[in-house]
Structures are given as C-alpha cells and as structure tokens.
Backbone:
C-alpha cells in the first residue's frame, strides 16, 4: 500500500475556479453568499487562537555543527522551538520567526531521516509534544457548507508550510530505523490516535495524504493500538453513514483498511465480519459514494478473497442498498458486482444467483442506457459467462422475459444490439430451454395478468370491507352519542349535527349565485 | 366489539400475508383502488415495482388488520411481522409508523403491549430514520399502557434495548426512559436511572450523543434530588467528553437542567460547566452556546446573566470563527432585551455596544448580515437619545455596506427605528443614504426600499423615478404603493402629480413601461374615483388597445375589467364594450381570451353597479 499519488479529488487541477453562476450575478444573493468573500482566499486555520503570547524566536546553531555531546540537547531545544505557532492568515506577520521555525523543522526532518542514533528515549515525549501542538487543532468550519469534493475547490490549510514539515518529521520519526515502538507507545496513546483520526476530516488533500501514510505506520508499528484504531474508524464511518453524511477522509481511511483487511488472520473474527456487514456494506448508501467507491470496492473484494463465505452477505447487502433513483450510483454498483463476480467461487455464485440476476434483469430494462449497457457488459466477461453457462437452467428463465421485452422496446440501438448478442449467446448455450421459454412467454404473460387481476380484486374487496366496517363503526358511535344526548337533554332525535352545520355554511352561496345570474340577465337586456 | 372477527372465508391470513411478502407480482395496483388505466407502465423494472408494491401493502396494513379482526391481528399478523423484520428500509419505516396507530386494531389499550415485539425489532435496525420512527411509535403507545403493563411489558423492553450489543438498540433506548419513568414504581425508577447512567458513559460516541440529546428531557421527569445527584454528574461528564459532537449536545441539555434547579444551586452545579463550554476549544461547542444564548440567559436568571453571561457573550461576539460570531450577532437583540431592567442600559452601553461596533466592520459578510437583521431592534431598548448618538452611525455604516444582504436587512427593519426616533429624524439622518440605495445595483435592495416608501411618503420624486425601473417585481411593488400613497394624500394630489406621469408612460417606447401605465391605472382607479378615471385614464387605456405588443393589448382587456366597476354605465356601454368586442376578435389567442373574460366579467360588474346605484352611490 505504498500509494503516494493523490486521490482523484486532487486539487492540482484548478478547473473549478470561482465562476459565479450568471443567475447569482444578477440578483447578488447567491445561496452561498456567506462564503464567497472568503472563498477567494481558500485558506483557513484554527490554530492561531491558542497562541497566548508570542515569543521571539532566536536562531539556534545548526544541528550538523553541534558536537556529539550537545546534539541531543540541541535537538530537544529545536523541538521546543517548533512548538511555537504562527498566524498564517496574516501572511506578513512575524516572517522572521516563521523562517526560523521552518529552518529548524527542516533540520529536524533531515536529522531524523539521515543520521543514526539521534532518537534516544528522552526525545520521544518532546517530539510527540511538538507534533501534537502543531497538528492537533479543531478543524475550522468548512468555507463552503455545501462543499462538494467533486465540484468545489477544497479549502487549503494556511499553515501548511510549517504543518507539512511537522508531518514529514512525524513520518520520518516513525520510519526511522531507530524508532522503538516500546518507547513510543507511552506517548502515542489512544487519545493521540483519536485526535489523529479526527484530522482525517481535513479538507486539505495534502494533509489527508500525510495522515494516511502516518496512520498506516502507526498501525503497523504499535500493535497495542490496532484494535482501538479499527474501532474508532468504525465509529467515524457509522457517524458518517447514519448521522452527518460528512467526512472528508473516508477514501483515505478505506485505503488503509484495504491493507489492514489484507492482513487479517483466518478464520475471520466475528468483529471483522461485523465490520463488513454493518459498516462497509452500509457505506454504499452514502450520497458521496463516488468519492470513495474505488477504495470501498477494493476493501469488499479483499474480504471475499480472504474468506469466500462472506460472499453471500456482500451480494445480499448490495442488493438491499441498490440505488433506487441515482443511475450514476447504479453504474458504480454494477461495476462493483463485476469486480466481485470476477473472483467469486462457483459454489458461492449458486447461492446468490437468483436475487442477483433478478436485479441484473431490472438493470437491463433501465431506461438509462448507461445502466443497461453496464449490466449487459457482464456477458463480455469470460469468467462471468462461464458461470452463467454452468447455471443456465436457473439464470435464463430469470432474465429471459426482460431480455425479450427490452429487445423490442428499448429506445437505444446500442442496447438493442447488445441484447441480441446476449440472446444469441443464450441460444447457443441451451437452445432447447431457449425455445421453450420463447414458446411459453405469452402464456406466462397471461398468467401474470391474471394474478394481477386477482390481486386487484382482493384489494378492492378489502377496501370495501374496510369502508363497510368504518361506516358501521361511525354509525354505531353516532347512535350511541344520539342516545346519550337524548338521555341527557330529553331532546327528540335529530339528524347528525355535522351535516346540518355544513348545510348552514353553504346557505349564502346559492342565494348569491342566483342573484348574480339574475343580474347577468339584466346586464344583457 | 361486534363483528370484530373479519370474514374468514374471504380473507384467509395466508393470502394477506402473501400480499405482504409477495415478490413475484409485478404490477402495483393497490393505490389505484382497482381503477383501470391506473396501472403503472409495464416497462418499469420489476424489482422497483414490487418494492413499491410491498410498501403499499404495508401502508395498508390497517386494512388488513381490520379484515382480520383484533384477535387474529394479535395472534397471526403481529407475530408474522415480528419474524420478517428484515426488509427494505422504506418498508420498515412505513411499518414503524403504522404500528404507532395500531392500538385500536389489536383490541385497545389492554392489548397494546402486543405491539411491542415488532417495534422492539424495528428499534434495533441500522437505518436512523426507521429507528427514530420506531422510537416515536413506542413513545406514543407507551401512553396507552396501564401502569402495570408499563412495568410488566414496556420497561423490560427498554432494559433489553439499553443493554443490547449493537449501538443501535442502545441509542433507541435513550429516547424511551423519559416516557416510562414517571409512571413506574420507585425500584424500577432506580433501575432506569442506572441504565441511563450507563448509557451516558457508553463506549460508542453514537450512544453518548443519543444520551446527551435526551439528557434534558430525562432531567425534566426526574425528582429534584436525583437531578442534583445524578443528572448533574452526567451532565458534567458529557460536557467534557472527548468528542465535541457530544459536548455540544450537553449545552442543549444545560438549558433544561438550569430551568429545573433552584437559583442558589445554579452557580455551583451548572455554571462551571457552562463557562467551560463557552470557552471550549471546538468552535462547534461555542457555536452551540451562542445559538442557545437566549434560552440559557432565561434559564440562569438575571444575576448570573449579569456576572457571567455578559462577559461570555462579549467573547462570543469576538470569537475567532465567523460561524460563532454570526450566531452570537443574531442574538444581540434578544440578549439585550432580556437583560435585567435596572442596569440594562448601562450594560449595553459599556459592554455590548463596543463589540457591536466592531462587528459592523467585520470581515465576514455573514456576520454583518446577521447583525444587520437585529441591530435595529436595539433602538427600542436604548431609547431615542442613545439611538441617535450611538446607533444611527452604525445603521448608516451598514446601509453603505458592500454586501447587499446587509443593506437589505437594515432597510427591512427601518420601522422599529421609526417608532423610536420619529420619521423626521429618521428621514433627516438616513434619507440621503436611502436615496442613494434607490439607485442600488441590486434589485432586491431597490424593492425593499420601495416597500418602505409609504413610510417615507414625503419623498415623491424617488417613487416616480423608481416606478420606471424595468424589473417586474419592482413595478408590482411600486404600483401597490402608489395606491397607498394616493389614499394618504387624496385624489386631487394624485391628479396633479402622479396621474400625468403615469399616463405619460403610455407612450414610452419600452413596452414594459407602457404596461406599467396599465398596472398603475389598475391600482389607482379606485382611489382616484370615477371622475378622474373616466376622463383621464380611460381614454389612454382605450388608445392602448391598438398597441402592437400583444402583452399590452391583453393587459388593456384586464385593466378594463378591473376599472369597470369605477366607470359609469354610459362609458361602459359606449366606450368600453366596443373596444373589448374588438379585442375579442384579436389574432392573438391570449388577447382574445382575456377580452372574453373581461366581457363576461364586466357585464356582471355592470349589473352590480346598477344595483348599488339604487341603494347608495359613493360618488
């Protein structure tokens, strides 16, 4: 998992610049008006608030010039110097201090990366403190409340010039051959990890990229934290799915999980299966699925490759959450199904083929041609085709009616010709079954119509029954009320009161209508 | 209940259950009530179809229950529903909702506990909306349980949910404590409190959030001693949770808790936590404090407000995050209003106003706009002199703000200042700025100005120049105001100043302006009276019936119908009728339509005019 490329939502292409829609230019009340003014800057940082008093930094001697005896002491001093935070929203403030810190950070990074024997025990708490002070902060409110990672430019972290070096230092620290997990675990504890995970919500993709690699190293080196990290990632995902629907780092966390899943021991623990069924599969329901679908599908397939018995959970889960209105997501689901079918075991395939091919048939009859096309492409996949062929007796009856009907009805010629190919394939596979189905198609249709009629009759009967019952009940209630009233007041029985009141209300209307009609008569004469 | 057992021969349970379970049937024909032609298109995907079909079946669950009768609903239908809870979330949502209204269908309150098993399963599903709906239904039917049933059936369910292994059931349990607590015995009460305590320190943040959000509600049903002993410690713990999403919910609970406690305990029990929340390192928590500030202020009372909340509010107004400042700015008026009367003015002048002054030139327009929407309200509180001396400069600055929303918010609230300092003072100090805004580039600002025109009625040149603005919305509002102005100043004034201007526009090359003439006439005719209308306006309208733009012509027809009642019958017969008849043969179909409408409409109004002439003619 040594990916260093940026996720697809990389900010490198400034394509979506700040073009204001013309409608907003006219009336000047853009829905996001609150943000526009600041958006141009597109930088943000919550750090500065916690800097109580500004300290003047003085440059320290260079690490490489320091005598060995003083090296650790100087290293420690530099770490302390780097705990000072600067205001990056004001880009001209304290330039000298910023430069001193930058240089110090650079030296620290280089020293940890290249020289051996620097990392001694007393430095651990200082290093972790420096890292914590710099990176842990409450992320600022999003500049754009409707931030769409696919459309909008992300807000970049203003203090990145320093923050990047701090992350770099952290990474080198973790990767150093001198790094001792047994010492680090005292400082890199659960609280630390929790705060690290919260940073994954950063809108800045550069920061998330560092975090991803760092968390991966932490997971790899600090074994005691593994279960905790998994649990907290679970919580982040559950919150994302069921509460906020907003978290910027889902793709990065899934990428880490992909390699974690790869390392799961067999047989899978109940905890891991639960994670698959209750977290990974429901993640498919997210509105922003397209941003992390590749990573998610990778995780799902990893699970299947680990343990084929989870296949049925996965397929049934996907079918449960199959998109109902979003065709773009439907295409993604179909893509994932194909990835799954590519590695499915034939014995597992048999268990899910029925519901699966009902859904595939439904996709083929989608009026959106991309959905239909994506489903029909399954027949171009050799392995899937072999599975279909083996189970032709089951699958063909499931899809036949759809194929037959859509081949005659679909508006898109490409789809029609693709369907003909599929029908031809089926004919070659099992011509007897194919002929039987063609022959019985009309009869089946008739039967279906008859069933529908029966259902309609049933419901009509039920509704009539309900009406009768309701009438009976209200009548009973009314009689009872009348009886009571009569008993109380000794009044003669009257017709139910609501009706009289309605006619009272209506009374002026007819008279008004008659006067207007007579008036109309007068006007014409 | 007579006839409660349904017709067995007609509706065997198997058939009905089959309906609920059916996945093969393809055509939803349920909601249409069997009407032909309602059938949905065959081409719609089969899975989609049976999904909506099943949904419909569930929505008609009460029909099925009614057909089965109460006995069989209890013994057959409910167990079936409990067993087959795995389903599409939409179906489950509908089911959860239906079951909340099922009490009568299972035989009334004495059997209502039969509904608990299916609702219990629904309260454990993953999907939040389903779970919430199940909890809502459970809360509803809890009221229908007798105290005994509540202890025998309902409370055990709450306990089971509270100790479920997956977070969903524990989350649901949080919403159920408060409904059963008041009606159970003291031993059970103790258990409930214990369960709630456990959930407040749950391992999963989702559960802690649910508990925190119900903390206030639960506190309300607890005895005061337990509020002090139990709730306060839970509140303090939740308010210092490691997750800000939990902490911010504790702020909400703070309002309810503070309301419950006697004044003397507030300082020691609630205030330390509240102070800490107002200074929380997460802006979300501070935002919540700002957002709930008025409620908090009322809950803690005047003394604490003076000593603690004033400085806290100052800090929130100066917060480093714009979100927090905006939320606080929104509360400025309410906060000041609720300050203790005796030193309100002094507090505002020395503590709040300096912050407000800074916010007027905030860097974030949302903050300024939030302030602008409430700042005018301060004038009522501070009185005339302070308003003139301190607030007017701020209003002026905001009227000139670069952000249109800020300007708009100020203009829309002019009336409260008017009440305090009087129209004279207002027009002297603010009018120059307002005149400038009448030329604002944003039409909404101009529109807002026009809407306040009757208030500043003396300044007529402004209205007339605005009347010519092309934007339709403005024209509508301006004509509307013309009527109000004429009502104020009388017909003669209108005849001399407005009518000539309006009629002049009838020859404007821009057809929109020509239509404005018609709109103005519509608005003015009634106020100006028969004489002016017949002599001055009618000829212009009639002339415009030859306009080359169809929109103008059909508006002529509409205008004629509109002013018909004001005209005398002679003019109607000899002048209006021929023109309308001509328009009724127009080549444009809209013109034709409106002319015909006008003919039938005018005849009627003509007749009514005759009738009213007999009784009393206003002119």
Residues:
């Amino acid at each position: 998992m040594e990916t260093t490329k940026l996720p697809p939502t990389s900010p490198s292409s400034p394509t979506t610049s700040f073009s204001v829609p013309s409608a907003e230019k006219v009336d000047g009340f853009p829905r996001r008006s609150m943000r526009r003014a600041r958006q141009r800057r597109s930088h943000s940082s919550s750090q500065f608030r916690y800097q109580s008093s500004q300290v003047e930094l003085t440059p320290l001697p260079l690490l490489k010039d320091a005598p060995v005896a003083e090296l650790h002491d100087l290293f420690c001093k530099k770490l302390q110097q780097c705990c000072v935070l600067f205001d990056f929203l004001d880009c001209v403030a304290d330039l000298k201090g910023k430069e001193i810190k930058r240089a110090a950070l650079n030296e620290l990074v280089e020293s940890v990366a290249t020289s051996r024997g620097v990392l001694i025990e007393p430095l651990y708490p200082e290093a972790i403190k420096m890292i914590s002070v710099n990176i842990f902060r409450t992320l600022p409110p999003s500049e754009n409340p409707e931030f769409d990672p696919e459309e909008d430019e992300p807000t970049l972290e203003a203090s990145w010039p320093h923050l990047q070096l701090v992350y770099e230092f952290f990474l080198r620290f973790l990767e150093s051959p001198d790094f001792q997990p047994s010492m680090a675990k005292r400082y890199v504890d659960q609280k630390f990890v929790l705060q690290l995970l919260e940073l994954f919500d950063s809108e800045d993709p550069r920061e998330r990229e560092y975090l991803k690699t760092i968390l991966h190293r932490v997971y790899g080196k600090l074994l005691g934290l593994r279960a905790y990290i998994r649990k907290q990632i679970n919580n982040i995902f559950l919150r994302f799915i069921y509460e906020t629907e907003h978290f910027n780092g889902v793709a990065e966390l899934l990428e880490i999980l992909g390699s974690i899943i790869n390392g799961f021991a067999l047989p899978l623990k109940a905890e891991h299966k639960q994670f698959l069924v209750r977290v990974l599969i429901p993640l498919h329901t997210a509105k922003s699925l397209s941003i992390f679908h590749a990573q998610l599908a990778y995780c799902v397939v990893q699970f299947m490759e680990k343990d084929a018995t989870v296949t049925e959970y996965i397929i049934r889960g996907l079918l449960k959450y199959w998109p109902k209105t979003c065709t773009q997501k439907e295409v993604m689901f179909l893509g994932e199904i194909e990835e799954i079918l590519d590695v499915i075991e034939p014995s597992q395939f048999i268990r899910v083929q029925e519901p699966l091919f009902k859904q595939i048939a439904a996709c083929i009859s989608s009026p959106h041609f991309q959905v239909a096309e994506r489903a029909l492409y399954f027949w171009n996949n050799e392995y899937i085709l072999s599975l279909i062929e083996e189970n032709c007796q089951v699958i063909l009856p499931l899809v036949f009616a759809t194929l037959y009907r859509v081949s005659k009805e679909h508006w898109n010629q490409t789809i029609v010709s693709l369907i003909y190919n599929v029908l031809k394939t089926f004919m070659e596979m099992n011509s007897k079954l194919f002929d039987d189905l063609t022959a019985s198609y009309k009869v089946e249709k008739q039967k279906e119509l008859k069933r529908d009629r029966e259902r309609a009759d049933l419901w009509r009967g039920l509704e009539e029954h309900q009406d009768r019952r309701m009438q009976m009940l209200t009548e009973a209630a009314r009689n009872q009320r009348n009886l009571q009233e009569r008993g109380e007041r000794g009044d003669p029985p009257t017709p139910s009161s609501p009706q009289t009141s309605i006619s009272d209300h209506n009374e002026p209307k007819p008279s008004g209508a008659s006067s207007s009609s007579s008036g109309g008569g007068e006007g014409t004469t | 209940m007579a006839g409660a057992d349904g017709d067995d021969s007609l509706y065997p349970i198997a058939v009905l259950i089959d309906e609920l379970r059916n996945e093969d049937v393809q055509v939803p024909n349920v909601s249409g009530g069997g009407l032909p032609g309602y059938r949905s298109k065959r081409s719609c995907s089969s899975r989609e179809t049976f999904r909506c079909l099943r949904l419909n079946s569930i929505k008609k669950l009460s029909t099925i229950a009614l057909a089965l009768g109460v006995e069989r609903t209890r013994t057959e239908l409910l167990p079936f529903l409990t067993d087959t809870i795995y389903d599409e979330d939409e179906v489950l949502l509908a089911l959860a909702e239906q079951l909340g209204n099922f009490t009568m269908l299972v035989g009334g309150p004495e059997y209502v506990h039969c509904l608990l098993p299916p609702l219990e399963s629904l309260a454990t599903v993953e999907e939040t909306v389903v779970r919430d709906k199940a909890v809502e239904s459970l809360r509803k039917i809890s009221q229908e349980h007798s105290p005994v049933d509540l202890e025998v059936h309902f409370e055990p369910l709450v306990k089971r949910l509270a100790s479920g292994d997956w977070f969903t059931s524990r989350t649901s349990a949080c919403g159920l404590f408060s409904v059963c607590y008041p009606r159970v015995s003291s031993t059970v009460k103790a258990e409930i409190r214990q369960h709630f305590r456990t959930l407040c320190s749950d391992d999963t943040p989702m559960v802690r959030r649910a508990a925190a959000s119900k903390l206030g509600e639960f506190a309300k049903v607890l005895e005061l001693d337990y509020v002090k002993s139990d709730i306060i410690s839970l509140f303090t713990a939740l308010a210092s949770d490691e997750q800000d999403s939990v902490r911010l919910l504790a702020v909400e609970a703070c309002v309810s808790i503070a309301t419950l406690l006697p004044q003397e305990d507030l300082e020691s029990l609630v205030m330390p936590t509240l102070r800490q929340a107002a200074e929380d390192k997460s802006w979300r928590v501070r935002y919540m404090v700002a957002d709930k500030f008025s409620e908090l202020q009322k809950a803690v009372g005047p003394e604490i407000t003076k000593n603690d909340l004033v400085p806290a509010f100052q800090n929130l107004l100066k917060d480093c995050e714009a979100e927090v400042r905006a939320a606080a700015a929104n509360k400025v008026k309410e906060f000041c209003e609720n300050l203790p009367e005796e030193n309100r003015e002094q507090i505002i002048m020395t503590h709040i106003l300096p912050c407000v002054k800074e916010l007027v030139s905030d860097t974030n327009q949302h903050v300024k706009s939030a302030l602008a929407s409430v700042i005018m309200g301060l004038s009522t509180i501070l009185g005339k002199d302070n308003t003139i001396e301190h607030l007017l400069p701020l209003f002026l600055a905001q009227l000139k703000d670069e952000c249109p929303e800020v300007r708009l918010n100020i203009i829309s609230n002019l009336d409260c200042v008017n009440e305090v300092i009087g129209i004279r003072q207002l027009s002297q100090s603010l009018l120059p700025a307002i005149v400038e805004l009448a030329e604002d580039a944003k039409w909404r600002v101009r529109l807002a100005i026009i809407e306040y025109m009757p208030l500043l009625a003396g300044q007529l040149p402004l209205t007339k120049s605005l009347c010519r603005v092309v934007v339709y919305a403005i024209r509508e509002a301006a004509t509307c105001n013309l009527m109000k102005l004429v009502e104020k100043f009388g017909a003669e004034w209108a005849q001399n100043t407005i009518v000539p201007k309006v009629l002049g526009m009838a020859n404007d090359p821009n057809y929109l302006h020509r239509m404005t003439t018609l709109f103005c006439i519509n608005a003015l005719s009634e106020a100006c009276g028969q004489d002016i209308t017949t002599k001055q306006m009618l000829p212009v309208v009639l002339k415009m019936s030859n306009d080359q733009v169809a929109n103008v012509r059909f508006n002529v027809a509409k205008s004629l119908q509109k002013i018909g009642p004001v005209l005398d019958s002679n003019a109607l017969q000899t002048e209006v009728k021929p023109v309308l008849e001509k328009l009724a043969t127009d080549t444009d179909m809209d013109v034709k339509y409106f002319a015909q409408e006008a003919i039938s409409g005018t005849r009627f109004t003509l007749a009514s005019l005759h009738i009213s002439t007999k009784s009393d003619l206003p002119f």
Notes: Chain B is about 75% helix and 0% strand. Chain B touches chain A through 69 residues (CB under 8 Å). Residues 1-10, 24-51, 458-474, 604-619 of chain B have pLDDT under 50 and may be disordered.
